[in-house]
Every structure is written in C-alpha cells, then in structure tokens.
Amino acid sequence: MKTKTGKTYTKYQLIESYRTEKGPRQRIILTLSDFDLDQPVWPALARAVSVDLLTKWDTEPRLPMQPVA
C-alpha cells in the first residue's frame, strides 16, 4: 500500500520465484491495481489467471529456471 496526496493506493502482484547460478530471483508475472472487485468474485478471477498462465506456460518459451522447493 502506498499513500500519495492523502489517498491510499493498493496493488497486488503475482511473483514467480526461481533459482539461478547467482542465487534466488523473483519476477513479476502479473500486477493488479485499482482492484475493485467484490471478494466473492476473487476465486473466479484466480481461476481465470491460473488458466491463462498455464496455457502460456505450455506454449511460450520461458527463461531456463528450476522450481523453488
């Protein structure tokens, strides 16, 4: 959360963690700001994001990485 000019701004980020030869790294996969959805809708949003990410994972080339245990 950040406050600017008296107004509070919140952003949510989906972060991917992975290991490299230089140690652990993180990269931002998705950022949501101005998130104004009622909480009951959140599970549907999570499912939609999961499907989108899984589809891209299977079809788009990615940087070499190993899953973090």
In short:
The chain has one helix spanning 42-59, and strands at residues 2-4, 7-9, 11-20, 23-33, 66-67. With 69 residues, it is of the alpha+beta class.
Write the SSE topology:
Blueprint: E1 2-4, E2 7-9, E3 11-20, E4 23-33, H1 42-59, E5 66-67
Antiparallel strand pairs: 1-2, 3-4, 3-5
Description:
The protein has one domain (2-60). Helices cover 26% and strands 42% of the residues. The chain has one helix and five strands. A three-stranded antiparallel sheet has the order 4-3-5, with no helix packed on it. A hairpin with a 2-residue loop joins strand 1 (2-4) and strand 2. The two termini are 29 Å apart.
Main β-sheet description:
3 strands, antiparallel
- What is the count of DSSP helices, taking H or I runs of 4+ residues? 1
Class of secondary structure makeup: alpha+beta
Q: Roughly what percent helix?
A: 25-40%
Order of helices and strands: EEEEHE
Please, what is the oligomeric state?
single chain
> Kindly state the mean pLDDT as a whole number?
77
Number of domains: 1
Please give the number of β-strands.
5
Strand content: 35-45%
Shape: flat
Ends: how far apart?
29 Å
Rg from alpha-carbon coordinates: 16 Å
List the strand order in the largest sheet.
4-3-5
Task: Flag low-confidence runs.
Answer: none
